[in-house]
Amino acid sequence: MAQNVLIGTFADDTAILTSHADPQTASTTTQNYLNTLQQWLTKWKVKVNENKSAHISFTLRKEVCPAVTINNIQIPQKQTVKYLGLHLDAKLTWKQHLAKKKKQINIKTMELQWLLGRNSRLSIDNKLLIYKTIIKPIWTYGLELWGCSTKSNVAIIQRSQSKILRQIVNAPWYVTNHTLHTDLQVPTVQEAIRKKAITHHNSIENHPNQLMEQLLEPVSNKRLKKLWPSELLLS
């Protein structure tokens, strides 16, 4: 592996990550690795769809990394990429990801309207079971990461959950969302984030691979108010 290059692979998805304060240097390092990768692809007759690949610069600065190419074709530069089911925007705000999840929740809720709707004859317990097994997993995936998003972004999912719970019990307008969550014993989104964070922390702490312990080390170069995954335990 080239210096300052990190490779992440899962099935047929591959991510090439390069980090440097200078955008030009970051792109040069990435391009050098891509050139080496192209030689390997040619040798083993592996084809890459350049148009389905994406190049994104994760930065808070206005300037972005110069374009890179593979097989002499420029990789499209984007502001948002999807990797392993997570939508990553250039500033890692998770806003795009949560907007996508809200849309998926709305679509799935409409499909299950005949079961979850106010006129459904299903019991409340069965309606809740459907919500927890079909709809809730839509937004809990990757919660350990996107839980670091701002309160306003997290509220997008909370409003969706509250709306569904209100529909399940056919609650009148004067019943508060807090009452709904308490009576139905459904954790709020923020409570779910903290629970996931604790479980994730404990699994890393007890992992047999000692290298995993590095993920629990406190952040020493933090410059922004934004939360890190390791800080969700205290949120």
TrEMBL record:
<dbReference type="Pfam" id="PF00078">
    <property type="entry name" value="RVT_1"/>
</dbReference>
<protein>
    <recommendedName>
        <fullName>Reverse transcriptase domain-containing protein</fullName>
    </recommendedName>
</protein>
<dbReference type="InterPro" id="IPR000477">
    <property type="entry name" value="RT_dom"/>
</dbReference>
<feature type="domain" description="Reverse transcriptase">
    <location>
        <begin position="1"/>
        <end position="88"/>
    </location>
</feature>
